[in-house]
Write a structure and sequence with these properties.
The chain is α/β, with parallel strands linked by helices. It has twelve helices and twelve strands. α1 links the parallel β1 and β2.
């Protein structure tokens, strides 16, 4: 049986969908299993109360579980310890492409360091693993939906291009990892090879909407203030702009990976594919 953590979220929800389609037995984890079960459109899913911030939920959620879909969160070391005691045989961990960035003096790389620390916890446990290392989620662009509707998007570094990943591709690879022993111990980089900037994204979204979306560049100093207003942590702000500047410099740290195509036997979904599927965010 597979425990899918974050099953009511974007990637976890797709994991449920594809695992169910493959006939796998799933237990879906949620802070509010009753509410999640009512909202779930997939029949026959067993939901369990689970919260990474509440260690008291770990044992019952892991009872009878062989495999886990896991992501970054608090108490991960304790969770992995309980998983080992309960006899879990595989952890498929949603990591980050940022882990491949090398250590440099003064570089924060908040996401990369946190996800690499999580990977090391899992590695040291001895539980077999697959580490999924995705690029920038396509859905991140939905954060700009309000500005898109107004017709004017204001961002820092709008020409900065990054490797995007459709969340469905992450989920499909995760499900393959549960079924294919040859993937155990691998750390696939999950990206679509097209580099997409905010300007590119707004052009594609605008074409789908049938109207032009104006993109206005603001200075980094203004972007920092905007992030502070919404409560973003300082290391996250610093890391965000580190990667934006990297993107302006050609994304030199990131491998040009075709591992989605190698694993799934079909091309990775593009950002345009995501726009076609999710244009409702911007209408």
């Amino acid at each position: 049986m597979i425990l899918t953590i974050g099953a009511s979220g974007e990637v976890g929800g797709y994991v449920l969908e594809y695992a169910h389609a493959k006939g796998l037995t799933i237990r879906a984890a949620s802070r509010n299993p009753t509410k999640s079960a009512e909202a779930c459109k997939i029949p026959g899913i067993a939901w369990v109360k689970f919260d990474l911030s509440d260690v008291s939920t770990f044992e019952s959620a892991l009872e009878g579980i062989d495999q886990v879909f896991l992501y970054h969160g608090p108490n991960l070391d304790e969770f992995v310890n309980v998983a080992k005691i309960k006899g879990v045989k595989l952890i498929v961990f949603l990591s980050s492409l940022a882990v491949v960035v090398p250590e440099e003096p003064g570089r924060v790389n908040f996401s990369g360091k946190n996800h690499r620390a999580d990977e090391q916890i899992i590695e040291s446990s001895g539980i077999p693993f697959v580490f999924l290392r995705p690029g920038e989620f396509c859905k991140n662009e939905a954060r700009l939906a309000g500005m898109v509707k107004s017709g004017n998007v204001t961002v820092c570094y709008p020409q900065a291009k990054s490797f995007r990943i459709h969340e469905r591709d992450i989920a499909e690879v995760a499900v393959e990892a549960f079924m294919r022993p040859e993937l155990v111990g691998t750390k696939p980089v999950l990206i679509h090879l097209e580099l997409v900037s905010t300007e590119d994204a707004m052009r594609m979204i605008g074409e789908k909407l049938g109207r032009e979306i104006r993109v206005t560049e603001i200075p980094e100093s203004e972007g920092v203030l905007n992030f502070r207003k919404v409560g973003m942590l300082e290391p996250m702000i610093t890391s965000y702009f580190e990667f934006k500047r990297d993107a302006m410099d050609g994304n030199k740290y990131f491998p040009r990976s075709r591992e989605i195509e190698d694993i799934l036997g079909k091309p990775a979904r593009s950002f345009k594919d995501w726009v076609d599927e999710n244009i409702a965010y911007f209408q």
